[in-house]
Amino acid sequence: MDKFLKGKVALITGAGGDGFGREMAIAFASKGADLVINDINSKGLEETRNLILNENDVEVLIVEADISNSNAVKEMAKRVFEKYDNVFLLVNNAGIEGGLQSLKTKEEVYDRVMAVNLKGAWNVTRTFFRKMKGQRNFSPIRAKIINIASCAGTQNGINPMIGIYSASKAGLIAFTKLWALELGPSDITVNTISPGVIISAMYDNDPKRGRQFLESRGVKLPIDRLGEKKDVAAIALFLASPAADYITGQNIILDGGMTVSINKL
After folding, report:
1. Alpha-carbon gap, residue 233 to 23, rounded angstroms
2. Could you say which of 51, 66, 77, 150 would form a disulfide bridge with 169 (CB–CB 3.0 to 4.6 Å)?
3. CATH architecture assigned to 9-261
4. pTM of the entire structure?
């Protein structure tokens, strides 16, 4: 099962930064997947492509596009299917921060966060799902969708200090369940990964900032270390593998036990 993604294409949005998207793209390539990497950061996309090709003999298509714009997503789909004959993996990873307490957030901030984090994932999924449904050559699963949400969108993790971001990620978790119901009859699985405090650009790749956030919220981790980007990529690889073919509609919380520990440790 070493190259279980050989002959399959993975599309990852938000893959132009030093974050989850890049880490997942490299992981999928290591298992044989050809790639479509998307972002609005063209330089970052080139860096991601170079990192992938340094160690993997795969095809990589760069598509610079704003996923909040439906016409841009349609153009992306056109380019994808000019080069490839399938999208087996669709990873809705692109996301932005923004907004403090929800009722004090400016309308333009609300609009932008929701446009990328929620509408963007909807735009991409509704543009690609019909082609994915037709991929009967892949069996027993024709395609897989992985949404990257956040513990901030979960019942125990919802955070009024990042209110609009929390609401956008809660919406993405809800979409996961809806799409699992809508697409399950077409043998497409849909699942979410909700990371907790991960050493990433959100914390300036600085473990001290992650620790400061936990201390400010009075939260302790049962597994007393911060998560790493490779932890997210490992779960994404599992969901992409045949071992996860019978899992759909689920939100995998990847937080070292943070959300179950609130008010208990």
Report:
1. 6
2. 150
3. 3-Layer(aba) Sandwich (3.40)
4. 0.95
